[in-house]
Amino acid sequence: MRHHIHAAAIAHLLRPIGAGILAAATLAAPVQAQNDKMVPIPTPAQPGAITLDTGKLPGATAPEAWHSQYGSVFTRNVTVATLTPFLPDPARATGAAVIVAPGGGFRTLSMENEGWDVARALAAKGVAAFVLKYRLNPTPADMPGFERSMAEIFAPGARPPRPRADAMAAGLAPQIADARAAFALVRKRAAEWHVDADRIGMIGFSAGAMLTMATTLTGGDARPAFIGNIYGPLTAVTVPADAPPMFVALAADDPFFANNGFGLIDSWRTAKRPVEFHLFEQGGHGFGMYPKPTTSTGWFEELTRWLDMHGLLKRRG
């Protein structure tokens, strides 16, 4: 199947962040040639969104903006982080919880396909889910300027070499701070939200998978109890002795991360830490919760089985 990738929806090439640190950008749209035009939309209602205490992104001037594309909803120029709870029916709640980090190249966030829809599906399984709208690198306020800035990433020679995943954390300080604040908030309100404080995991998509990995590797109180890496980079890392169980899903035809080896998987296995890896024949990049005629659409069912295998879909006691 021929994949169409709209340049304005992609940013999985590396681009400088902060003091010369490189970080990967991400494609947060399905690889299909339809509904690919970015259309500005009013800021949607975000009931239950809680402002995190990490403050406003320093130096940011452009206002938060939203647009639709591929029949889904995206935001950019996020300067203040929020966390939106999606809580299960108390009768079904297992006590497990997940921080959900959408992707978008640290320039945009796929809030619906990789955020709200994922959280609703987890809540239906009895898992409390919390969508993290983390702060982003600034982009031009106008849509044409934003599209041009994204297209520049694809200019010839615009692909600097990728650093090791565990070397990227220094360039993601605002995003890691947002993730840590999210964990702190969920733990603080664990009793209210019927969450077991020691069963809070994190799942990320593309750039969100990078944030998930950086949060895991930087340790501290925010270290997830389990993690999901959905079409993120699979470069080798130094694995902590107490690294959490990890679920990984990637399509073999992913245009960005399918041809760079599986160092992350090897790292986890060498450290003798639990890891499950699904390499789907087709699916491209950014499939998320979009229904597609490929087996990659089944990644969420596989994740559910994995969570159940680890006892996360069962109540304690």
TrEMBL record:
The keyword Signal applies. SUPFAM superfamilies: alpha/beta-Hydrolases. It comes from the Bacteria. Residues 170-220 form the BD-FAE-like domain. GO terms for molecular function: hydrolase activity. Residues 1-33 form the signal peptide. Keywords: Hydrolase, Signal. InterPro entries: AB_hydrolase_fold, BD-FAE-like_dom, GDXG_lipolytic_enzyme. PANTHER family: AB HYDROLASE SUPERFAMILY PROTEIN C4A8.06C (PTHR48081), PEPTIDASE S9 PROLYL OLIGOPEPTIDASE CATALYTIC DOMAIN-CONTAINING PROTEIN (PTHR48081:SF6). This is Esterase. It comes from Sphingomonas taxi.
